[in-house]
Design goal:
Elements lengths: L5 H9 L16 H15 L4 E11 L4 E12 L2 E6 L2 E5 L3 E6 L4 E6 L7 H4 L13 E5 L3 E3 L2 E10 L7 E9 L5 E8 L4 E11 L17 E4 L2
Parallel strand pairs: 6-13
Antiparallel strand pairs: 1-2, 1-12, 2-3, 3-4, 4-5, 5-6, 7-9, 8-9, 9-10, 10-11, 11-12
Length: 224
Protein backbone atom coordinates (compact mmCIF):
# COMPACT_ATOMS: atom_id res chain seq x y z
CA UNK A 1 0.00 0.00 0.00
CA UNK A 2 1.43 3.36 -1.07
CA UNK A 3 3.59 5.16 1.48
CA UNK A 4 1.95 3.41 4.43
CA UNK A 5 3.84 2.47 7.57
CA UNK A 6 2.56 1.21 10.88
CA UNK A 7 2.92 4.65 12.39
CA UNK A 8 0.74 5.99 9.58
CA UNK A 9 -1.79 3.26 10.28
CA UNK A 10 -2.18 4.20 13.91
CA UNK A 11 -2.27 7.87 13.12
CA UNK A 12 -5.55 7.09 11.37
CA UNK A 13 -6.82 5.34 14.48
CA UNK A 14 -6.51 8.44 16.59
CA UNK A 15 -6.88 11.43 14.33
CA UNK A 16 -10.08 13.41 14.15
CA UNK A 17 -11.86 15.93 11.98
CA UNK A 18 -11.74 19.67 11.65
CA UNK A 19 -15.12 21.00 12.78
CA UNK A 20 -17.32 22.51 10.13
CA UNK A 21 -19.32 25.64 10.81
CA UNK A 22 -22.55 23.75 11.50
CA UNK A 23 -20.75 21.68 14.14
CA UNK A 24 -19.42 24.66 16.07
CA UNK A 25 -22.86 25.26 17.55
CA UNK A 26 -22.87 21.74 18.99
CA UNK A 27 -21.56 20.87 22.43
CA UNK A 28 -17.81 20.48 21.79
CA UNK A 29 -17.86 17.41 24.04
CA UNK A 30 -21.31 15.95 23.52
CA UNK A 31 -22.35 14.10 26.73
CA UNK A 32 -24.16 11.41 24.71
CA UNK A 33 -21.01 10.72 22.75
CA UNK A 34 -18.90 10.80 25.92
CA UNK A 35 -21.09 8.19 27.61
CA UNK A 36 -20.63 5.80 24.68
CA UNK A 37 -16.88 6.43 24.46
CA UNK A 38 -16.46 6.00 28.22
CA UNK A 39 -18.17 2.59 28.10
CA UNK A 40 -15.91 1.47 25.28
CA UNK A 41 -12.79 2.73 27.06
CA UNK A 42 -13.67 1.21 30.44
CA UNK A 43 -14.36 -2.17 28.87
CA UNK A 44 -11.07 -2.29 26.99
CA UNK A 45 -8.95 -1.02 29.88
CA UNK A 46 -10.07 -4.07 31.88
CA UNK A 47 -8.51 -6.55 29.44
CA UNK A 48 -5.04 -7.95 30.13
CA UNK A 49 -4.38 -8.00 26.38
CA UNK A 50 -6.19 -7.23 23.13
CA UNK A 51 -5.64 -8.99 19.80
CA UNK A 52 -7.11 -7.33 16.71
CA UNK A 53 -7.42 -8.64 13.17
CA UNK A 54 -8.33 -5.96 10.68
CA UNK A 55 -8.76 -4.89 7.09
CA UNK A 56 -7.19 -1.61 6.13
CA UNK A 57 -8.34 0.15 2.96
CA UNK A 58 -6.93 3.17 1.15
CA UNK A 59 -9.04 5.00 -1.43
CA UNK A 60 -8.35 8.10 -3.49
CA UNK A 61 -10.79 8.52 -6.37
CA UNK A 62 -8.84 11.36 -8.01
CA UNK A 63 -5.71 9.21 -8.21
CA UNK A 64 -7.51 5.94 -8.95
CA UNK A 65 -6.30 4.27 -5.75
CA UNK A 66 -8.34 1.46 -4.18
CA UNK A 67 -6.17 -0.88 -2.09
CA UNK A 68 -6.84 -3.21 0.82
CA UNK A 69 -4.51 -5.04 3.20
CA UNK A 70 -5.08 -7.32 6.16
CA UNK A 71 -3.23 -6.91 9.43
CA UNK A 72 -2.95 -7.92 13.06
CA UNK A 73 -2.29 -5.97 16.24
CA UNK A 74 -1.54 -7.12 19.78
CA UNK A 75 -1.74 -4.73 22.75
CA UNK A 76 -0.57 -5.64 26.26
CA UNK A 77 -0.28 -2.81 28.75
CA UNK A 78 2.37 -0.44 27.43
CA UNK A 79 3.58 -3.01 24.88
CA UNK A 80 2.37 -3.74 21.37
CA UNK A 81 3.14 -5.72 18.24
CA UNK A 82 1.71 -4.84 14.82
CA UNK A 83 1.85 -6.59 11.46
CA UNK A 84 0.73 -5.20 8.10
CA UNK A 85 2.00 -6.32 4.72
CA UNK A 86 5.77 -6.38 4.76
CA UNK A 87 6.14 -4.39 7.96
CA UNK A 88 6.22 -5.12 11.68
CA UNK A 89 6.32 -2.68 14.56
CA UNK A 90 7.24 -3.99 18.00
CA UNK A 91 7.30 -1.96 21.23
CA UNK A 92 8.32 -3.09 24.71
CA UNK A 93 7.11 0.13 26.33
CA UNK A 94 10.43 1.95 25.95
CA UNK A 95 11.86 1.05 22.53
CA UNK A 96 10.11 0.82 19.14
CA UNK A 97 11.46 -1.43 16.39
CA UNK A 98 10.06 -0.83 12.88
CA UNK A 99 11.06 -3.79 10.73
CA UNK A 100 10.84 -3.28 6.96
CA UNK A 101 11.18 -6.76 5.52
CA UNK A 102 11.60 -5.85 1.85
CA UNK A 103 14.25 -3.24 2.65
CA UNK A 104 15.97 -5.66 5.05
CA UNK A 105 16.28 -3.01 7.72
CA UNK A 106 14.97 -2.24 11.19
CA UNK A 107 14.60 1.31 12.50
CA UNK A 108 15.03 1.70 16.26
CA UNK A 109 13.49 4.63 18.15
CA UNK A 110 12.36 5.55 21.64
CA UNK A 111 8.81 5.94 22.88
CA UNK A 112 8.23 9.68 23.32
CA UNK A 113 6.34 10.90 26.40
CA UNK A 114 3.75 13.65 26.34
CA UNK A 115 0.29 14.13 24.92
CA UNK A 116 0.79 16.73 22.22
CA UNK A 117 3.69 15.42 20.17
CA UNK A 118 3.06 13.46 17.00
CA UNK A 119 4.64 10.23 18.20
CA UNK A 120 2.30 10.17 21.19
CA UNK A 121 -0.63 10.47 18.81
CA UNK A 122 0.68 7.51 16.82
CA UNK A 123 0.89 5.31 19.90
CA UNK A 124 -1.64 2.44 19.74
CA UNK A 125 -1.54 2.15 23.53
CA UNK A 126 -3.71 5.29 23.54
CA UNK A 127 -6.22 3.73 21.14
CA UNK A 128 -9.23 3.60 23.46
CA UNK A 129 -8.56 6.79 25.44
CA UNK A 130 -7.55 9.36 22.82
CA UNK A 131 -10.81 11.26 23.09
CA UNK A 132 -10.07 12.14 26.70
CA UNK A 133 -7.65 14.96 25.90
CA UNK A 134 -7.21 17.30 22.95
CA UNK A 135 -10.33 16.29 21.03
CA UNK A 136 -13.92 17.38 20.63
CA UNK A 137 -16.64 14.90 19.76
CA UNK A 138 -20.31 14.62 18.88
CA UNK A 139 -22.75 11.74 18.44
CA UNK A 140 -23.85 11.39 14.82
CA UNK A 141 -26.89 9.49 13.51
CA UNK A 142 -27.13 5.81 14.46
CA UNK A 143 -26.62 3.46 11.53
CA UNK A 144 -25.92 -0.13 10.48
CA UNK A 145 -22.54 -1.53 9.53
CA UNK A 146 -22.01 -5.14 8.48
CA UNK A 147 -25.58 -5.88 9.62
CA UNK A 148 -24.83 -4.55 13.11
CA UNK A 149 -26.58 -1.66 14.84
CA UNK A 150 -23.90 0.91 15.60
CA UNK A 151 -23.37 4.29 17.19
CA UNK A 152 -21.56 6.81 15.01
CA UNK A 153 -19.21 9.16 16.88
CA UNK A 154 -17.44 12.06 15.19
CA UNK A 155 -14.14 13.30 16.67
CA UNK A 156 -12.25 16.44 15.74
CA UNK A 157 -9.15 18.10 17.22
CA UNK A 158 -9.32 21.18 19.39
CA UNK A 159 -6.43 22.61 17.33
CA UNK A 160 -7.15 21.49 13.75
CA UNK A 161 -5.05 23.91 11.68
CA UNK A 162 -1.90 21.78 11.59
CA UNK A 163 -3.63 18.43 11.16
CA UNK A 164 -3.54 16.51 7.84
CA UNK A 165 -7.15 15.29 8.09
CA UNK A 166 -10.63 16.75 8.07
CA UNK A 167 -13.00 13.95 9.20
CA UNK A 168 -12.90 10.77 11.29
CA UNK A 169 -15.82 8.56 12.24
CA UNK A 170 -15.85 5.89 14.95
CA UNK A 171 -18.42 3.10 14.64
CA UNK A 172 -19.22 1.38 17.94
CA UNK A 173 -21.50 -1.65 18.09
CA UNK A 174 -24.50 -1.00 20.34
CA UNK A 175 -24.81 -4.54 21.68
CA UNK A 176 -21.18 -4.96 22.73
CA UNK A 177 -19.77 -1.42 23.06
CA UNK A 178 -16.91 -2.57 20.82
CA UNK A 179 -15.27 -0.35 18.23
CA UNK A 180 -15.81 -2.14 14.91
CA UNK A 181 -14.68 0.42 12.33
CA UNK A 182 -13.07 3.79 11.73
CA UNK A 183 -13.16 5.92 8.61
CA UNK A 184 -10.73 8.80 8.08
CA UNK A 185 -10.81 11.44 5.34
CA UNK A 186 -7.53 13.23 4.77
CA UNK A 187 -7.09 16.72 3.37
CA UNK A 188 -5.14 15.29 0.41
CA UNK A 189 -8.15 13.25 -0.75
CA UNK A 190 -7.10 9.92 0.75
CA UNK A 191 -9.82 7.97 2.55
CA UNK A 192 -8.71 5.28 5.00
CA UNK A 193 -11.06 2.66 6.40
CA UNK A 194 -10.02 0.48 9.30
CA UNK A 195 -12.40 -2.45 9.81
CA UNK A 196 -11.93 -4.78 12.78
CA UNK A 197 -12.78 -8.30 11.61
CA UNK A 198 -11.89 -10.19 14.79
CA UNK A 199 -11.36 -9.12 18.40
CA UNK A 200 -9.83 -11.43 21.01
CA UNK A 201 -9.25 -10.18 24.59
CA UNK A 202 -7.18 -11.67 27.42
CA UNK A 203 -4.84 -13.94 25.45
CA UNK A 204 -1.65 -14.68 27.39
CA UNK A 205 1.51 -13.25 25.80
CA UNK A 206 5.04 -13.46 27.18
CA UNK A 207 6.88 -10.14 27.44
CA UNK A 208 9.56 -11.60 25.16
CA UNK A 209 7.09 -11.35 22.26
CA UNK A 210 7.44 -7.57 22.46
CA UNK A 211 11.20 -7.56 21.88
CA UNK A 212 12.89 -7.61 18.48
CA UNK A 213 16.09 -9.47 17.66
CA UNK A 214 17.28 -8.62 14.16
CA UNK A 215 17.75 -11.62 11.85
CA UNK A 216 21.15 -12.10 10.26
CA UNK A 217 21.76 -9.72 7.37
CA UNK A 218 19.30 -7.05 8.57
CA UNK A 219 20.62 -3.49 8.74
CA UNK A 220 19.94 -1.72 12.05
CA UNK A 221 19.27 2.03 11.90
CA UNK A 222 19.37 3.52 15.39
CA UNK A 223 17.33 6.74 15.54
CA UNK A 224 17.57 7.23 19.30
Amino acid sequence: MKNLTFTTLFLFLIIALTAQKSEKDLNPKDPKAKAILDKMSTKNKAYTSITLYFEYKLENKAEGIDETQKGKGILKGDKYRLELGGQEVICDGKTIWTYLKEAKEVQISEVSPGDENSESLLDPRNFFTLYEKGFKYVKDADTKRNNKDVYSIKLYPEKPASKPFHTVMLYIEKASNDLIAMEVKMKDGNIFTYEITKFEPNISYADSQFKFIAPKGIEEIDLR
